[in-house]
Fold this sequence. Notes:
The protein is α+β, with helices and mostly antiparallel strands. The protein has helices at 45-57, 122-128, 132-139, 141-149; strands at residues 7-14, 19-25, 32-33, 35-38, 66-76, 91-100, 114-121. Helix content is 25%, strand content 33%. The strands form 2 sheets. A 4-stranded mixed beta sheet has the order 4-1-6-5, with helices on both faces. The chain has a 3-stranded antiparallel beta sheet with strand order 3-2-7.
Amino acid sequence: MQYKRPVSVLVVIHTAxxxxxxxxxxxxxxxxxxxxxxxxxDESLIATAAREVAEETGIILPQSAFDDWQRTNTFEIFAxxxxxxxxxxxxxxxxxxxxxxxxxxPVVIAPDEHLDFTWLPWxxxxxxxxxxxxxxxxxQLPQRKASSAA
Length: 150
C-alpha cells in the first residue's frame, strides 16, 4: 500500500468579482469546500494545484495562472482518513493557492469525490465552508486581490 503524503493544496477558484467556486463532498453531503488534494510523488506544489483543479473541476489552466500565497496551514487529519497515511501521521500541511477564472462557469466534478458545485459571493462562500482554513482563505481574497493588483 502506498500511503498519502501529509502535504496538500487548497485552491480557491474565483472570478474577478469574487464569485467563489465550492464543491460538495461526496463522503459528507452538506460539507462544502474549495479544491483540495494531496501532493503526489516528487510533484511540485504548483503542479499539485493544477492537477487537482483539472481532476476535480475540468478546468485546465497553465501553472502560471495560479497564485501561490506562500501560506501554510497545519491541521489534524480526521480520524476517518488516517488509514490513508503512514502509521503515526496525525497532521497535514496545507499550502494555499488561488486561481482567477473569467466567469462562473459550469464545471465537471469528479463524482467519486463531489456531489455538486456552486458559485457564491465570497462572503457567502466563506460561511458555507466546513473547513476553517478554507473559510479564512476566502475571507482574505479581497485583500489578496487588491495587493496583487497594486
